[in-house]
Design a protein that fits this description.
The complex is a heterodimer of chains A (551) and B (297). With 551 residues, chain A is mainly alpha-helical. Chain A contains 25 helices and no strands. In chain B, helix 3 runs parallel beside helix 5. With 297 residues, chain B is an alpha/beta fold. The chains are: A mainly alpha (551), B alpha/beta (297).
């Protein structure tokens, strides 16, 4: 596998792609088997606002629902995320690691390296889609689900093209700047904003056409699952990918390669400027390194700042939007069965509380809180071991327990910040839209969200403490969170299995409808106890283990 | 007074790999102790074990009379540490990093830090990730020396330093010992250890094969010698000379390993043979092991 730059790139990445694709295939099995066993008439009258976000089409059946919800939504984002990660690492990742010089020390041209990396990006994305395609073909046959008249291959072709578009954007930004973070962030923001815009804009008639401005629209805008491949849309996405590839080649050819270097942050610039040095020095210098907690908090500013901004904008925007689409929602609200409402925590969609629960708290909130919790928690201990700084840190007169506790406190600080922003942004939206939501109830939902974040942050911390491996901590916890989310939402749809949903932390999050009914202290206590138990486990696991030496 | 470091039967296995085997070692207060061995011999494992980073499979260790596991935190108040393959926080400047560790230690004498930085010509205002490996090593050395520890534990500390800085570093090590404090440093180069250490422990395949005073080791140290003669010579010419072994003769040239005073060898050859040139080099560690520790290896 080390014969060429191309095969080495495949070797570095195939595990991630396999895990992503196989997970989606398993979710398809799970989704189809659950959907098959429930009365699907409940989906036919689903309000558009909700269907749009989950990618569920009108007049759906079991096969279509599973394809749309699992492949069109989760699968498309997963494949896109993988492509972005591969694209951003292609050139900029080698520069960040300082290996590009070594690579180009061989008789190979920059263009050849770029072409090999681009080839690997295409091959891996197509391979991921192929695995999902195999499942799309085998699963319905095995479970005897009727998929006649559907074109999963067309959906997968559109998913692949959309993933490549964003992956090649990341590749091009990385090739022009050599900045991996910028490359992945710009493509990821375009993808997530596109996903939100395509879900939300069509709800407002006057803005509906605006969705076409986002590449994500061309993934599902033509409903390829029902209508087959839309060659125009597909050509648009693939043409864009090719244009980005050409831009990457032009950018890489003319640029000085970067040495292994540290990114210059805004605070660094302020520290360098005589006018602002005094102030910046206090913030970036002495305060940041005053203790382990402060240093750990400072390491994730970018991630948290981005999360906070997105949540603030979304939360504030949803209030005025509710007043625009209020009427449509009310007509649907009465017809929804309880079983379906389990998915979004029994929200009454005709009320502002239900609207916010559906659009802000049921999916976006947990994604934001858990992403922050898992990244900070997963890197807290295992990151220092991966970076080989743990030995140096523990050569100071401090206990391992103190290191775990301070790192956990830093994780909790970030997660609490996300919870606080959910609270503030919802109140802002409530004021802007004149919805009159209760401050205490919004606080209750935000508190429960914070606690859910702390539970998964605790899992990531404990996995990191036990293994010292960032990948195990981050991917293990993410997988667990997705599985438990599905356990909660899907099991509640089946009366016989509904009781098992209580084994998922998500059951304690929105099931009690905190935005309307206020806080159920018992539910908060369960989550808090779980988070506390995980912290105790993390301390114990870290205390008795040999530290890893490297990697 | 308790020894600086004492281990009893210290053993560490990783699965089937025996990284340390029954290590008994005592490092006295106020000495510079060199811990010598080829790559992969177990030097780093031993250091990480006594620092409580990893836990021994069997045996125990004490630092300054304190058990290395039970009183690990207390011990770290009295030590400075430079890990092998030093890595630090790349996004912090050297000064930020020293401030961080100073805070974790509850303060430091910044005058002393400045003095160390000047001696080593260290750049403390640049991000650690932007420094060359040698300059990064300097920051690592400063953090180990800065609180005037009673015991300095350093794993291959002069990695990446240029010869001038190596000399400065060696001077700093000797000053620490002169002040009655202890230095334990691991290395795979004999010459470095010979220059600074009072005693040397030699480790191979996880076993401590010898502990010697440097003066004895130097006396023992064998050299590789290449002799060039004006006329062809015979291997028999070196037969009776004490300390000579592994003689290979090619026409005008002879190569041999020699353990003894140069005086004795030259006296044997001078006058009897037409000696044109002599090249000598220090035997590498492996040769010393082969010569002296064949049975233990």
């Amino acid at each position: 596998m080390l014969a060429t730059v191309f095969t080495k790139s495949l070797r570095d990445r195939w595990i991630g792609v396999s895990i992503g694709a196989v997970s989606m295939a398993l979710f398809l099995v799970y989704g189809m088997s659950v959907y098959r066993s429930i009365d699907l008439s409940i989906y036919t009258d689903l309000p558009e606002s909700m269907r749009a976000l989950f990618g569920i089409a009108e007049g759906t059946d079991a096969g279509r629902l599973a394809y749309d919800a699992i492949y069109g939504f989760a699968g498309a984002l997963t494949l896109g995320g993988l492509a972005i990660s591969i694209g951003a690492s292609s050139i900029a990742g080698e520069e960040r690691d300082g290996t590009i010089g070594l690579l180009l020390g061989n008789p190979t041209s920059r263009l050849h390296v770029l072409a090999s990396k681009a080839g690997a990006l295409v091959a891996l994305t197509v391979a991921g889609a192929a695995v999902m395609g195999l499942a799309a073909w085998v699963v319905p046959a095995a479970l005897d689900v009727d998929v006649a008249g559907m074109h999963p291959a067309a959906l997968l072709a559109h998913m692949t093209a959309a993933a490549l578009f964003h992956g090649f954007l990341a590749l091009a930004v990385g090739a022009w700047t050599g900045n991996r973070t910028l490359a992945s962030a710009s493509a990821a923001v375009l993808m997530v904003v596109g996903y939100l815009a395509v879900g939300i804009l069509p709800l407002v008639a006057s803005l509906a056409d605006g969705a076409r401005a986002f590449p994500w629209y061309y993934l599902n805008g033509s409903s390829p699952l029902v209508n087959g491949v839309h060659w125009g849309h597909l050509a648009l996405l693939l043409g864009g990918s090719a244009a980005f590839a050409a831009a990457a080649a032009a950018g890489l050819a003319q640029r000085d390669l970067r040495e292994r270097s540290e990114p210059v942050t805004l605070l660094d610039r302020l520290r360098g400027n005589p006018m602002t040095r005094g102030m910046a020095e206090r913030v970036a210098g002495s305060a940041r390194v005053s203790r382990i907690w402060a240093k750990t908090v400072s390491e994730h500013q970018g991630l948290v700042a981005l999360t906070v901004l997105v949540l603030l904008a979304l939360g504030a925007m949803l209030g005025p939007m509710y007043t625009v689409i209020d009427e449509d929602l009310r007509t649907f609200a009465d017809q929804l069965p309880d079983a379906l409402l389990a998915m979004i925590g029994f929200a009454d969609l005709g009320t502002p509380e239900g609207w916010y629960q559906t659009e802000h708290f049921s999916v976006m909130g947990p994604i934001a809180a858990i992403t922050v919790a898992v990244l900070v928690g997963g890197r807290a201990l295992a990151g220092e071991e991966r970076d080989r700084t743990m030995g140096l840190l523990l050569a100071n007169p401090i206990t391992r327990r103190r290191v775990v506790l301070e790192k956990a406190a830093a994780m909790a600080t970030h997660v609490t910040a996300v919870g606080a922003v959910m609270w503030l942004s919802t109140l802002a939206g409530s004021v802007l839209g004149g919805l009159g939501m209760r401050v205490a109830n919004v606080a209750a939902a935000s508190l429960l969200l914070t606690l859910v974040g702390l539970v998964f942050g605790g899992v990531a911390l404990a996995l990191g403490a036990a293994t010292g491996r960032v990948k195990v901590a981050v991917f293990g916890t993410t997988g667990l969170a997705v599985a438990l989310f599905l356990v909660n939402s899907l099991l509640q749809l089946n009366a016989e299995l509904a009781g098992w949903a209580r084994w998922s932390p998500f059951w304690y999050y929105l099931t009690s409808d905190p935005l309307s009914a206020g806080l159920r202290w018992g539910h908060a206590a369960v989550l808090a106890a779980l988070a506390g138990a995980l912290l105790v486990a993390a301390v114990a696991l870290f205390d008795r283990r040999d530290l890893r030496q490297a990697g | 007074m308790n020894p600086a470091i004492a281990t009893r039967g210290l053993t560490k296995h990783y699965g089937d790999v025996r990284a340390l085997v029954d290590l008994d070692l005592e490092v006295r207060r106020g000495e510079v102790f060199g811990f010598l061995g080829p790559n992969g011999a177990g030097k780093t494992t031993m250091i990480r074990t006594i620092l409580d980073e990893i836990r021994p499979t069997a045996g125990r260790a004490e630092i300054l009379g304190m058990d290395t596991h039970d009183r690990a935190v207390e011990i770290r108040d009295h030590i400075g540490y430079v890990p092998g393959d030093l890595a630090m926080y790349p996004n912090l400047t050297g000064r930020d990093m020293l401030t961080y560790f100073a805070n974790l230690r509850g303060g430091v004498d910044w005058g002393h830090v400045r003095e160390l930085a000047e001696r080593l010509d260290a750049e403390l205002d640049r991000k650690v990730g932007d420094l060359s490996s040698g300059n990064r090593q300097k920051v690592g050395l400063i953090q180990a020396f800065m609180n005037r520890p009673e015991l300095l534990i350093m794993d291959e500390p002069s990695t990446g330093l240029d010869p001038l800085m190596q000399r400065e570093f060696q001077a700093m090590v000797r000053e620490v010992a002169a002040a009655g404090r202890t230095v334990f440093l691991s290395s795979h180069t004999l010459s470095e250890v010979q220059r600074v250490a009072d005693r040397v422990g030699i480790i191979r395949n996880g076993r401590l094969v010898a502990v010697e005073a440097v003066t004895d080791l130097r006396h023992k140290a064998i050299r590789r010698i290449e002799l060039e003669f004006g006329t062809p010579v015979d291997a028999a010419a070196f037969a009776g000379v004490p300390g000579v072994r592994d003689v290979v003769v090619h026409d005008h040239r002879a190569e041999l390993a020699y353990d003894g005073k140069m005086d004795a060898l030259l006296a044997t050859l001078a006058g009897r043979y037409d000696l044109v040139d002599i090249t000598t080099r220090e035997a590498d560690l492996e040769e010393i092991f082969l010569a002296y520790y064949r049975d233990d290896g």
